[in-house]
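>> received
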Amino acid sequence: MSDQIELNEVIKDYFAKYPPILKIEQVSEILHENSQTTRDRIRRGTFPIKVIKEPGSRFQVMLIDLVAFLTTGKRQVPLPRELREKAPGKKRGRPTKAEQIAKARVAK
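>> returned
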């Protein structure tokens, strides 16, 4: 129980300098990543924290949501379907020798 109380005190002390609603620059600072990376992850739908879209295309994050993510590590926003279910497709790169031979046999 005392460990939980100590953790709560540490969290309160660390986040005391931040407002209740954070700008992306502040979120990036806390997560130790570039702000453009954070914006890209939000646009792609891979950012794990709930985001508020302000009129004028500004993204904001609630401090409570950020702390909840940092303490639990649980994703708050589900991944988009296309990222969860990766569609089988043509692989990248040069075909293997076996694939080249198989293709040549079919062409004959």
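>> The chain has one domain: 2-80.
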